[in-house]
Design brief:
50% of the residues lie in helices and 12% in strands. Helix 1 packs across helix 8. The radius of gyration is 20 Å and the shape is globular.
Length: 313
C-alpha cells in the first residue's frame, strides 16, 4: 500500500454473507476501512449492512458468473471515483463431503468453478484497481493445502491448486509492488460446520447401495469428528484479525496460519513421513488405519448423473 496516505483504505471481500467473510467485513468496517462486501443475493447484503450498522457497502457478485464479476468490478470502480483499491480478500468457497470415486464430475466442476476459477476471475477483474493503489491481495487457503482428509479430496485439492496459483501470482506481482498473501486456517467455528454433519446422510442416501455399505459408516464418523473439531476451533473473528494484519503489516508474510491446530497440522504434514501421516489423519478422524480389503468390495458403481453430494460453504 502507498505509505503516508490519509484517505480511507478500501477493500473488496468476496463471500461476505456469513462466516469468515462476514466477520472480516464487519471488523474492517469497524476499523475505518471502506468495505465492499460481495454477496450473491440482495437480501444477504441488506442483512450484512444492518449487522455492520451501515458501515459497509454491499455488492452483488457471483464468482461463477463472469459477467457478474465484471459488473461488480465496474460498480466498485465507479464508487471509488478514480481511486484505487487497497485490498482484495478472495474468500468465497464451498466444500463437498464425499468419497473421491463417488463425487460426480459435475459437482467437482462446480466446486472448482467457485474455489479456483472464480477466484482467478475476481482477481483478474479487480487487479487494475489494486495496481492503481499499490494494494494487496489476500487469498483464503486452508491447512487442507497441506493435508487432504478422507472424504474431503474435492475441497482439499481445490485449495492446494489455489495455493499454487497464489504463489505464482505473488511472484508475478512482486516487481509491481503488490503483495499477495495466503491465509491458512485450521479448525474454525463458523455456521458452515453444521452442514457436513447434516448433509452426510443425504450424501450417503444418494450413493448406490454397495458404495453406501463401504463408505457410509466411515463418512458418519469423519463428519462427526470434523464437526466436533470445528466447534472447538477458533472463532471467525480470529481469522478476520489475521486478514487485517495481512492487509496492513509493513512486511507481510507470504502465509498466515490461524487457528488452534493450524501450526501443528502443517508441521506434521511437512516433517512426518507420509505413511505415518496417513495413520495420524485416519486416527484423528476416528477411522481405522488398518490396511486391508473390505468385505464385499469387488466394485463400486458411481452415482447416476445429477445426484450430487451435499455441498457446504
Amino acid at each position: 500500500m502507498k505509505q503516508g496516505a490519509t484517505a480511507t483504505k478500501s477493500v473488496v471481500i468476496t463471500g461476505a454473507s456469513s462466516g469468515i467473510g462476514r466477520a472480516t467485513a464487519i471488523r474492517l468496517a469497524g476499523n475505518g476501512w471502506r468495505v465492499f462486501a460481495t454477496v450473491r443475493e440482495n437480501a444477504d447484503g441488506e442483512a450484512l449492512i444492518a449487522a455492520a450498522r451501515g458501515a459497509l457497502e454491499a455488492v452483488v457478485l457471483d464468482v461463477r458468473d463472469r459477467e457478474s464479476i465484471a459488473a461488480a468490478a465496474r460498480e466498485v470502480e465507479a464508487r471509488l471515483a478514480g481511486r484505487g483499491l487497497d485490498g482484495l480478500f478472495n474468500n468465497a468457497g464451498i466444500g463437498i463431503v464425499a468419497p473421491v470415486e463417488c463425487t460426480p464430475p459435475e459437482a467437482l466442476r462446480e466446486l472448482y468453478e467457485i474455489n479456483l476459477f472464480g477466484q482467478i476471475g475476481v482477481t483478474a477483474a479487480f487487479l487494475p484497481l489494486v495496481r492503481k493503489a499499490n494494494g494487496r491481495i489476500v487469498n483464503m487457503g486452508s491447512v487442507g493445502d497441506h493435508i487432504a482428509p478422507p472424504f474431503a479430496g474435492a475441497i482439499s485439492s481445490s485449495k492446494a491448486a489455489f495455493a499454487s496459483m497464489s504463489q505464482a501470482l505473488r511472484l508475478e506481482l512482486r516487481t509491481q509492488g503488490i503483495c499477495v498473501c495466503l491465509i491458512e486456517p485450521g479448525s474454525i467455528n463458523t455456521p458452515a460446520i453444521e452442514k457436513p454433519l447434516g448433509g452426510v446422510e443425504k450424501t450417503i442416501a444418494a450413493l448406490p447401495a454397495d458404495a453406501a455399505a463401504l463408505y457410509g459408516e466411515p463418512m458418519r464418523r469423519m463428519a462427526k469428528t470434523f464437526t466436533a473439531n470445528e466447534r472447538a476451533g477458533s472463532p471467525p473473528e480470529a481469522v478476520a484479525k489475521v486478514v487485517e494484519r495481512a492487509l496492513t503489516d509493513r512486511n507481510p508474510a507470504t502465509r498466515y496460519l490461524v487457528g488452534k491446530d493450524a501450526a501443528k497440522l502443517v508441521i506434521l504434514a511437512r516433517f512426518l513421513p507420509e505413511k505415518f501421516l496417513d495413520i495420524a489423519i485416519l486416527k484423528k478422524f476416528g477411522l481405522s488405519p488398518q490396511f486391508g480389503k473390505p468385505a464385499n468390495a469387488a466394485s463400486v458403481s458411481l452415482p447416476s448423473p445429477g445426484r450430487s453430494p451435499e455441498t457446504f460453504g
